[in-house]
Amino acid sequence: MTDPRIDIRQMLTLTDDTGIFQHARLAAPDPNHGYCVDDNARALIAAVRLHPHDHPEGQPGVEALVNRYLAFVAYAVDHETHRVRNFMGFDRRWLETVGSNDSQGRTLWSLAIAAHEAPLSHQRELAGIVFLEALPATQTLDSLRTWAFLLLALDAWLQTPQGQKDAAARNRMARHADQLAQVYQANHTADWPWWEATVTYDNARLPLAMLQAGQRFDRDDYTAIGLTALDWLLRIQTHAPTDHLSVIGNDGWYRRSGDTDTPTAARFDQQPLEAAALIDACAMAYHVTRDRAWVDHAGRCLAWFHGENDLQAPLIHPETGGCRDGLTPTGVNQNQGAESVLSYIMSCQTMRLLSQSSAAE
């Protein structure tokens, strides 16, 4: 496996003085849809994991990009309620008083990553301050993916100098791990090893969170859940006979059927964030097991971006380096919005680390 090239030109195109635009019309930023904290949180994670040689000459350096996205994410946390606001108009006015549960969890994840990995000490310090401000307001959130994002956030926080002494954060992570495990045990069957009756979006974050918790707490039962669910998730998204990745589409998802019915996955619309989540989970599965099959699975997921998919069409635009917005029944969605662009960049960053780790074995 060779290290994938990380190209941030389209990420830079979508970024202005406020943050990263949510959508694009083809490759141009679309001000009509403004910004969202979800994408700026993704951009913050991508920025702190950039190497100096990853950005084009003459463009803002890594530290400047981290400052921009960190400022947006920090501003998204309401100083009175400590809840996260998600959508912002082009006029820099918030369009809601509180964002979705998932945006709360994803924001905490990005802040914890920045508190651990940001290049400058003041960036790490600010990210940690905002993380601790926002964390208590997420106590009552009860969706599965929010728990998963909070697990990932808390695991990253526990790796920081301050977090290593944070017993409350460790206990909070243990509680969310137990919650995810209990829901899985209550709902899975031998032929449906999953948390819900419908497999929907950002799916691999659930097994990834279980694998992280298994490592953190030395819990083989958590690890077994993560590996079993991830293996099944890959199998139901593998298209025979070529064995390419066929991502579950958001136009109908993948629903558990009755005893006489065979469940079928929606073929479209296929989203880049699904392949990105799978790559992260496969990399973690390799870290846990040292089984090179997970490296191969991650490579197959990355290949989905480059044309090894149901349409045999690449999503990466040769002129911009950006990722198009997915696969539809009529072809590739030609827009290159932030979620897709960042999903590909983050996938390449994970594959770079996985390549280095597996090569050292």
Describe the protein.
50% of the residues lie in helices and 6% in strands. The protein contains 12 helices and 10 strands. It has helices at 9-13, 37-48, 62-76, 101-117, 121-134, 144-157, 167-187, 205-217, 220-236, 272-289, 293-305, 338-359; strands spanning 24-25, 28-29, 35-36, 87-88, 198-199, 238-239, 244-245, 254-255, 326-328, 331-333. Strands 1-2 form a two-stranded antiparallel ribbon. A two-stranded antiparallel ribbon has the order 3-4. A hairpin with a 2-residue loop joins strand 1 and strand 2. The longest helix has 22 residues, at 338-359. The radius of gyration is 19 Å and the shape is globular. The chain starts with 8 loop residues before the first helix and ends with a helix. The model has no long low-confidence stretch (mean pLDDT 95).
Beta percentage is 5-15%
Outline: globular
Quote the distance from N terminus to C terminus.
13 Å
Report on the biggest sheet. 2 strands, antiparallel
**Count of helical stretches:** 12
The SSE order reads HEEEHHEHHHHEHHEEEHHEEH
**What is the rounded Rg?**
19 Å
Which sequence of strands runs across the widest sheet?
1-2
DSSP summary, beta strand count: 10
Low-pLDDT stretches = none
The SS-based structural class is mainly alpha
Helix content: 40-55%
Average pLDDT over all residues: 95
